[in-house]
């Protein structure tokens, strides 16, 4: 249990350090970093690497945005097994739906209630 | 003689030093802490509500997004962001923050043209590139599994 927390912290932190290096050294914008990470997550999942990372690091791998790409591909592949080609499109948002829906909903509600700061 | 190279060396002392190491440590600690909270939530949802570890992913992400949206509303998340850089941008909370802050920023332009139209200004690129790359990788994998 303690080790789970330890590795979640270390792996999650390490992924963020990669992002920071992309920001500082390669002068990418945050949007570029986030987009690259999502693509990286999808590609790593294509080689079945990302699941191993999740097994090892738990939330350290599921909380960074890379897991968004991983979930997109996972949903697509699950449906592809059942429905073939069209399944890729059917399933692509299956697992990420909760994240996107809640981000839209909460973002909208917060924008209604709060006043912009600064 | 002032050449381009000389000039670059001369002004080096007056330019702000890139604080790469410091920034990386900050990103590591804050990003790690957010993942630590995620791990705590995972344990909470598996122990208290009996989710399997895989199924717990959805409520964990949803909770983090809710927290991030609220903190953005209070103006706290942007302060964390100034301190942590990628440490708060890379976790899924950064995704929620980009949606909420874009929505808030354009509130004065109205709900339809302001809030709703601008919500995905930053997050849109994440969804577009994620979807396109997952689609391509998915197709390739499907073809390989079918025909090899």
TrEMBL record, chain A:
Keyword Metal-binding: no
Transmembrane feature ranges: 6-26, 33-50, 56-73, 85-114
Keywords on record: Membrane, Transmembrane, Transmembrane helix
Transmembrane keyword on record: yes
Pfam families listed in its UniProt record: SpoVAC_SpoVAEB (PF03862)
Name under which the protein is recorded: Stage V sporulation protein AE
Species of provenance: Piscibacillus halophilus
From TrEMBL, chain B:
Record protein name field: Stage V sporulation protein AC
Keyword set, alphabetical order: Membrane, Transmembrane, Transmembrane helix
Domain of life of the organism encoding this protein: Bacteria
InterPro entries (alphabetical): Spore_V_AC, SpoVA
Claim: Membrane is one of the keywords in the record: yes
Residues annotated as transmembrane: 20-44, 56-76, 124-144
UniProt KW Transferase keyword: no
């Amino acid at each position: 249990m303690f080790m789970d927390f330890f590795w979640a912290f270390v792996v999650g932190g390490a992924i963020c350090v990669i992002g920071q290096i992309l920001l500082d050294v390669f002068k990418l914008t945050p949007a570029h970093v986030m987009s690259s990470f999502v693509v990286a997550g999808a590609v790593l999942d294509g080689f079945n690497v990302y699941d191993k990372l999740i097994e090892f690091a738990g939330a350290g791998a599921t909380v960074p945005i890379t897991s968004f790409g991983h979930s997109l591909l996972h949903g697509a592949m699950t449906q592809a097994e059942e429905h073939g080609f069209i399944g890729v499109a059917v399933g692509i948002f299956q697992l990420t739906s909760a994240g996107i829906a809640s981000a839209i909903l909460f973002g909208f509600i917060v924008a209604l209630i709060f006043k912009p700061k600064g | 003689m002032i050449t381009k190279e000389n000039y670059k060396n001369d002004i080096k002392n007056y330019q702000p030093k890139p604080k790469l190491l410091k920034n990386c440590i900050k990103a590591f600690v804050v990003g790690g802490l957010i993942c630590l909270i995620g791990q705590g939530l995972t344990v909470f949802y598996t122990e208290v509500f009996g989710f399997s570890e895989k199924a717990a992913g959805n409520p964990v992400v949803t909770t983090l997004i809710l927290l991030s949206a609220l903190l953005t509303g209070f103006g706290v998340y942007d302060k964390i962001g100034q301190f942590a850089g990628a440490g708060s941008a890379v976790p899924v909370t950064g995704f929620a923050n980009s949606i909420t802050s874009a929505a808030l920023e354009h509130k004065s332009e109205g709900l339809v043209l302001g809030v709703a139209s601008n919500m995905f200004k930053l997050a849109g690129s994440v969804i577009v590139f994620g979807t396109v790359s997952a689609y391509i990788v998915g197709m390739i994998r499907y073809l390989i599994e079918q025909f090899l």
